[in-house]
Amino acid sequence: MRNSLMIRLVSLLLLAFIGFQSVAQVDYKKETPEQKAKRMDWWTDARFGMFIHWGLYALPARHEWVKNYERMTSEQYQKYFEEYNPDLFNPKEWARMAKEAGMKYVVLTAKHHEGFCNFDSKYTDYKTTNTQFGRDVIKEYVEALRGEGLKVGFYYSLIDWHHPDYTIDRVHPQRQESDSAYARLNKGKDMAKYREYLKNQVRELLTNYGQIDVIWFDFSFPGKNGKGRDDWGSEDLLKMVRQLQPNIIIDDRLDLKDKDYGWDFESPEQYKVEKWPERNGQKVYWETCQTFSGSWGYFRDETSWKSPAQLLELLIESVSKGGNLLLNVGPTARGLFDYRAQDRLKAMGEWMKYNNRSVYGCTEAPAEFVAPDNTLLTYNAKTKRLYIHLLAYPMGNLKMKNMADKIKYVQFLHDASEVKYRTGKDEDSQSVNLQLPVLKPPMEIPVIEVILK
Ligand code: GLC
């Protein structure tokens, strides 16, 4: 009697232990497409996020690659560390501006290629808390975003132009012409130590600041005098990231593109994709990252700023091909968003206020719907609504093919005013002619909402 009770007890404990193990061990390598879709759900709904590049390069204010472009040594770059004091830094303002622009998540550089850390890392002195400024930027940033209900992302540069063990390679400020020069300069440097440093810092970032929603590693450049997965210890790093933050979303720059589990989304940088990107015949998750004017870090003298209309088109176009837009701000060395960035964020927010229904939760329209010239279509499968974005405002009417049987009701999105339509005749009986007012509605890009049957 006693024995059988004992056996039962032991087997119960054993079962509980096995159960615990399977919960505790995230088998990210076996994640199904459905499980991934669930993990990615908030991100595909969000569609619009803010990138922030902020570091010592805000002081020279002429590109975040300035150390590289001007081939500065760490000694020459040191003056920026010494003068760093962004006295007007207020991440609550940043978070508020992101939210008002309609963005749902933010990704901030915890460390960029220059190696300077925006957080209080145990593993380096080269950090914001050791400057005159003295504050843990990442900590305040995370709190501010949560205060606005925004998702939290970190960018972490795999590249490091400051760490003494990081070997000189072809994208380093001290890059060389000959193999022998590389060998001479890299003597005594130990990438294994750097690898450990990088892993330790990522562990800090994913342990000390609560739930992190996105991590953005940047970037790999395998090949001669380059760096890739073995240099970063990518597999090992990924494993740790997935263990520490099982729900996190990871970009595709760890040089693990050949593994399904090695990345979550593609990250086309500063160009428009022609169509929804695919891998092995499958449409993939993707996010394009874009600047207002070319540089990621604050660049005082840049004049090639995109207009609000261009930026909105970038956003709508991404959604119309099933992707996200991560739009970058490079705050100044006082800690403020550049006035030109503020203008554009405001303009986008104004549009989003009235039209965000054509962005959130939307994606590429089913192939049966044909976009007329100068329009972009997006589609919400849950609400069964099709959105027609008028990039150039048509004269009086807009013809849509293949629609007559499918329409329940049509309206402008910004003011919910009815848009009347006529169906075509005979062989044209499936097309509809939307009757538009002559006067363009007061929206940068007017949107027609078609409620489908
Ligand atoms: C690049 C650049 C970098 C920027 C990044 C954003 O890889 O090196 O400065 O942070 O793209 O995507």
Structure write-up:
With 453 residues, the chain is α/β, with parallel strands linked by helices. The chain folds into 2 domains: 326 residues, TIM Barrel (Alpha-Beta Barrel), CATH 3.20.20.80; 78 residues, Immunoglobulin-like (Sandwich), CATH 2.60.40. It contains 12 helices and 16 strands. The strands form 4 sheets. It has a 7-stranded parallel beta sheet, sandwiched between helices. The chain has a 4-stranded antiparallel beta sheet with strand order 10-11-16-13. Helix 5 packs across helix 6. The site of alpha-D-glucopyranose has 8 residues, from loops. Alpha-D-glucopyranose binds next to loops.
Residue fraction in strands: 15-25%
Number of domains: 2
CATH architecture of the largest domain: Alpha-Beta Barrel
Which fold name corresponds to the CATH topology of the largest domain? TIM Barrel
**Average of the residue pLDDT scores:** 95
What order do the SSEs take from the amino end to the carboxyl end, as H and E? Answer: HHEHHHEHEHHEHHEEEEHEHEEEEEEE
CATH class of the largest domain: Alpha Beta
User: What gross morphology would you assign?
Assistant: globular
How far apart are the termini? 67 Å
Work out the radius of gyration: 25 Å
Number of helices: 12
